[in-house]
Design goal:
alpha+beta; 18% strand; 26 strands; 846 residues
Length: 846
C-alpha cells in the first residue's frame, strides 16, 4: 500500500470545496419545497442586512446626513442581531451597489452554500491533520457535505452556518499558535517583561514614557511572532459577537491551548490583541449609542436560560408567555429565580435537564421537515444518529488510546464541549447544530482505528459499545419526554357515535352567558353532529380560536408554519368547539353524543386520566419544529381543569371538555348590550375602477401577472366598512370568475381585516393559492373574522391578488413560474354571524 503524503495539497482542498458547492447547488435546484430562507428569524436578519447595506452605501457616498439616517435605521436591528451576519451579507449586497429586496434572496442561498463548502473543507483539513490519512479525511468531510441538516441550513438566513465555519477555524488557528516557532524573543518574554518592570520603577518620570513604549512594542512583537494566535483571537471575537453562547467554547479552547504551549505570554498577547481588534469597534459603537460598552450582543441570555427551566412548560417558551415567564420579566434578579426554581422544584428541574439531551441531540435541525434528495425526515434521523455514533465513538477512542496527546483533537473536543452551554437554554435542536459539526471531525479518531488495526479490536468494540449506549440514552431521553404527550386516536366511521358524560357543579351556571363543547380531533370533525342531553347543537365543530379575537391572532402563526411545512391550518392539532344551549345543561350533567359525518373523523384521547388538559392558549412553536412527525404545539395547561365526574364509551380518556364563559365586567357588558351595533349585511360588487390602472383590461376585466405585479402600485384594494359591533364576528366572502392563459396556473388571493390602528389580520383559512384553468371557472372564498383584534377595531377589508402562491410571492418576489390570470364578476360580502365571542369573558373549563 502506498504511504500517505505528508500533506494534502491545495488541489485536494479545492476539489472538496468545489464538489461540496456542486452537491449543495444540485440540492437547491432539485428542491421542490417552498422558499423558507426568510421565514421567522430569517426575515429579521434580512432586514438587518438591508439596513447594513444602506449604511455601507451611505459611507461610500460620504454624505453625513445619509450616514446618520442609515445608522439610525440600523441601530435597533443590529443591537439584536449583532454586527457579524449583517456586515457579511450587507457587504456582499453593497458590492452590487443597491439595497436588496426580498426578490434578491437567492444571493443569500449562494453565500450560505459557500459557507457550507468552507465548513466541509475545514473538516477535511482538520481530520487529515489529526490522522494523516487521506481516506479518513475524505470520508469525514463527505459525512458533513451530505448531512441533510447542513444542506437544509444552506438555504436559511441564520447564524448557524457562519458559526460552524468560525468554530471549526478556531481549533486550527490555535493549533497553529501552539506550533509557532519559539524565537529567542518568545523564550525570554517573561524575563524581559519583568526586567522592564523593574527598570521602570528605577527611572524618573521623564523616562517612564520610553519604558511604556518599549513594553507596548514588546507586546506587538510578541503578537507578530504568533500570527496564528492573532488570527485565533480575531475568530474568537467574531464568534462572541455572532452568538454569545460561543463564549464557553472560546474560553475552553483558549485554556486548552495555553495548557499545551510553552510560549504562553506570546500566545496570550496575540489572542487578546486579535480578540480586542474584532470586539473593540462594537464596544465603541455600543458606548456611543447606548452609553454603556457591551462585549456581546444583547439577546437576553439570562432571560432565555430562565425560560429553559420554566416548570410550567417543561422548559419551552410559549406564545403567549406563561405565568412564570411574565413574573420572570418583572423580576430584578433572574439568576436567583433559577436558584429558587431548583430549590422549590428539584425533581422537575432534574427531569427538564435529562429531557434536554434528547431535545437537543436526538433529531437533526430541519424546522420545516424538508426532503433532501427525496429522503424524508425519518431516514434523515437515522443519518443524524449515525453521525452522533461516529462522533462519540471518536471521543471514546480518544480516551482509550494514545490519541489523548493529539493536540488538535483536544482543541476540537474543548470547542465542542463548550457548546453544552445550550443545555441551560430552551432545548431547540438548532442551537446544537454548530456542536454537531464536530461529530464528523471527531469521528476521524474512530475511523482511523478501523483499517489495518486488528490488534485494536478491543478498543474499537469498547468505543462502539460506549458510543451506541450514549446515543441510545439520548434517544430514550427524547422518548421519555414524549410520554407525557402520548395519546390514542379514536377513528369513527360514517355515522359511528361516541358518547361521553360530564358532570359538574350546577352552581357555576348562574351568570354564564356562553357554553362551548371542546373536542380534540381532526378537521373532519367539522362535519360531525353533536347532541347534548338530546338537544342538537347548531353549527359546526370549528377551531376554538374563532371564538376569541385574542386567540384568532394565532392563525397568522399557523399560516406561516403551514406554508413552510406544506400543511393547512386545519392540519395542526387545535381544539374544535361548538356552542351548547345553556338550558340543555341546567342540572349540571352533559350527556354528549358525537356522530361522525360521511368522511368519518378522529377524536384523540389520553392514556392517563390524571394529566392536565392541553391548553388552547399556550402554543409552543419550538417544540413543534423540534418534532419531525407531530403537528402538536399545545402545551399542558399549568392549571388543571375543574373537578368533574367523567365517563365515556371508549377505554381511553377522549379529550372532551365543557367550557362556561361569564362576563368579566357585567355592568359594562349590560351598558354595551343596550345599544348594540350589528354589522349590516354588505354585498359589494367590485369593478375594475377599484383597482390599479395597470390591472384593468380593455374588456372591463382585471388581470394579474408578473409584469403587472412590478408595474402596479398595488394589486388590490382596501374597502372601508361601517362601524361594527366589537363583540361580534362576521363572515367574509369573496367570489368571482377567473381563467388563466393557455396553461393552468395558480392565483394567490389575500384577504385581511384592517383595524383603526392600520394593522392587518389575515383570514384564518386563507389558502396559499387556488388553481386556475384556461376556461372560465368560478371561485369562492369564505371565512369568519372577529370585528375586534388585539390591535384595534376592524374598519376595513384589504384584498390583494398575486400571480401565484401569495406567501411565496409576497415574501420572495415573482419568478418564472408565475402565471397570468384574468378575473371578472368580483363580489365581496360581509354578513353577520351567530358565532358567540369570548372577548372579555372569564372562562371555566370542565
Amino acid at each position: 500500500m502506498r504511504p500517505a503524503k505528508a500533506n494534502l495539497g491545495w488541489r485536494a482542498y479545492g476539489a472538496v470545496f468545489v464538489i461540496t458547492i456542486a452537491v449543495t447547488t444540485l440540492y437547491h435546484l432539485l428542491d421542490d419545497g417552498v422558499k423558507v430562507a426568510l421565514l421567522f428569524d430569517g426575515r429579521h436578519y434580512f432586514e438587518s442586512c438591508q439596513r447594513m447595506t444602506g449604511l455601507i452605501l451611505a459611507l461610500v457616498s460620504m454624505k453625513a446626513d445619509q450616514v446618520a439616517a442609515a445608522e439610525q435605521s440600523l441601530r435597533e436591528y443590529i443591537m439584536l442581531d449583532g454586527p457579524v451576519l449583517p456586515t457579511l451579507f450587507g457587504s456582499v449586497y453593497a458590492l452590487l451597489g443597491r439595497i436588496p429586496t426580498s426578490a434578491d434572496w437567492t444571493l443569500i442561498v449562494w453565500v450560505q452554500t459557500v459557507l457550507h463548502a468552507l465548513a466541509t473543507t475545514l473538516i477535511c483539513k482538520i481530520t487529515f491533520q489529526m490522522t494523516r490519512k487521506h481516506a479518513v479525511a475524505f470520508t469525514c468531510c463527505a459525512l458533513w457535505a451530505l448531512y441533510p441538516a447542513a444542506l437544509v441550513a444552506s438555504g436559511r438566513l441564520m447564524t448557524e452556518s457562519l458559526a460552524v465555519v468560525l468554530l471549526l477555524s478556531l481549533p486550527l488557528a490555535l493549533r497553529g499558535a501552539i506550533s509557532a516557532p519559539r524565537t529567542e524573543e518568545n523564550q525570554s518574554a517573561d524575563e524581559s517583561t519583568k526586567t522592564d518592570g523593574k527598570a521602570g520603577e528605577e527611572k524618573d518620570a521623564s523616562s517612564s514614557k520610553v519604558t511604556t513604549r518599549s513594553i507596548l512594542s514588546k507586546f506587538a512583537s510578541l503578537a507578530a511572532c504568533n500570527q496564528f494566535g492573532f488570527a485565533a483571537g480575531i475568530v474568537s471575537g467574531l464568534l462572541i459577537l455572532l452568538k454569545p453562547g460561543m463564549i464557553p467554547s472560546v474560553a475552553l479552547s483558549w485554556l486548552a491551548c495555553l495548557a499545551m504551549t510553552r510560549a504562553r505570554l506570546a500566545v496570550v498577547v496575540s489572542l487578546l490583541l486579535g480578540a480586542g481588534l474584532s470586539i473593540s469597534p462594537w464596544m465603541l459603537y455600543t458606548k456611543q449609542t447606548t452609553g454603556k460598552a457591551a462585549i456581546t450582543v444583547q439577546r437576553m441570555p439570562v432571560h432565555n436560560a430562565l425560560i429553559g427551566w420554566d416548570p410550567e412548560t417543561s422548559g419551552w417558551q410559549t406564545n403567549p408567555p406563561s405565568g412564570f415567564e411574565r413574573v420572570m420579566n418583572t423580576g430584578g434578579e433572574p439568576l436567583s429565580t433559577i436558584e429558587g426554581i431548583w430549590l422549590s422544584h428539584p425533581q422537575d428541574c432534574i427531569n427538564i435537564l435529562l429531557e434536554k439531551f434528547g431535545h437537543l441531540y436526538s433529531t437533526p435541525w430541519n424546522d420545516y421537515r424538508a426532503n433532501v434528495f427525496g429522503v424524508g425526515t425519518r431516514p434523515q434521523g437515522f443519518y443524524h444518529c449515525l453521525l452522533l455514533f461516529l462522533g462519540l465513538g471518536g471521543v471514546f477512542a480518544w480516551i482509550l488510546t494514545s490519541e489523548r496527546k493529539n493536540k488538535l483533537a483536544i482543541l476540537c473536543i474543548a470547542a465542542a464541549t463548550g457548546q453544552c452551554v445550550y443545555l441551560m437554554f430552551e432545548p431547540v435542536c438548532r442551537y446544537a447544530f454548530p456542536q454537531i459539526a464536530f461529530a464528523p471531525v471527531l469521528s476521524a479518531l474512530f475511523l482511523a482505528l478501523l483499517p489495518g488495526n486488528s490488534k485494536k479490536w478491543k478498543t474499537i468494540a469498547l468505543a462502539s459499545i460506549l458510543s451506541a449506549g450514549s446515543v441510545e440514552l439520548v434517544a430514550q431521553s427524547e422518548k421519555q419526554s414524549s410520554k407525557r404527550l402520548e395519546e390514542v386516536a379514536h377513528a369513527l366511521t360514517n355515522n359511528e357515535k361516541l358518547a361521553a358524560t360530564i358532570k359538574f357543579n350546577p352552581q357555576s351556571l348562574p351568570g354564564s352567558t356562553i357554553a362551548l363543547l371542546l373536542v380534540d380531533g381532526d378537521a373532519n370533525l367539522e362535519s360531525a353532529r353533536v347532541e347534548v342531553n338530546g338537544h342538537k347543537c347548531f353549527g359546526n365543530l370549528i377551531a376554538f380560536n374563532y371564538y376569541d379575537p385574542q386567540r384568532y391572532q394565532a392563525f397568522n402563526l399557523l399560516k406561516e408554519l403551514g406554508y413552510g411545512m406544506h400543511v393547512q391550518v386545519d392540519d395542526f392539532r387545535i381544539w374544535r368547539a361548538i356552542p351548547v344551549p345553556l338550558n340543555a345543561i341546567e342540572d349540571g350533567v352533559a350527556n354528549i353524543t358525537i356522530t361522525a359525518g360521511q368522511q368519518g373523523c378522529t377524536i384523540y384521547g389520553d392514556n392517563q386520566e390524571s394529566r392536565n388538559y392541553l391548553s388552547p392558549d399556550f402554543l409552543c412553536v419550538n417544540r413543534l419544529i423540534n418534532s419531525k412527525s407531530s403537528l402538536e404545539m399545545r402545551n399542558e395547561s399549568p392549571i388543571p381543569a375543574a373537578r368533574t365526574m367523567r365517563s365515556w364509551t371508549f377505554s381511553d380518556n377522549p379529550r372532551i371538555h365543557l367550557l362556561l364563559a361569564k362576563d368579566a365586567n357585567p355592568a359594562a357588558e349590560e351598558l354595551k348590550s343596550s345599544t348594540p351595533l350589528k354589522p349590516s349585511n354588505l354585498n359589494i360588487a367590485l369593478s375594475p375602477d377599484d383597482f390599479d390602472e395597470n390591472m384593468r383590461t380593455p374588456t372591463g376585466e382585471i388581470k394579474i401577472s408578473r409584469s403587472i405585479l412590478k408595474a402596479a402600485r398595488s394589486t388590490g384594494l382596501v374597502r372601508k366598512l361601517p362601524k361594527l359591533d366589537s363583540a361580534a364576528n362576521v363572515e367574509i366572502t369573496l367570489e368571482g370568475d377567473m381563467h388563466s392563459g393557455p396553461k393552468p396556473g395558480e392565483l394567490g388571493i389575500v384577504i385581511s381585516t384592517v383595524t383603526d390602528k392600520n394593522t392587518e389580520c389575515f383570514l384564518a383559512r386563507l389558502p396559499s393559492s387556488i388553481p386556475t384553468k384556461s376556461d372560465w371557472t368560478h371561485f369562492k372564498l369564505t371565512d369568519i373574522a372577529p370585528c375586534k383584534t388585539r390591535q384595534g377595531e376592524v374598519n376595513a377589508i384589504d384584498i390583494a391578488f398575486f400571480p401565484g402562491p401569495w406567501q411565496q410571492i409576497a415574501g420572495y418576489g415573482a419568478d418564472r413560474k408565475c402565471t397570468d390570470t384574468v378575473l371578472k364578476n368580483l363580489r365581496l360580502e360581509v354578513n353577520s354571524t351567530a358565532l358567540p365571542s369570548l372577548a372579555d369573558k372569564q372562562l371555566l373549563i370542565y
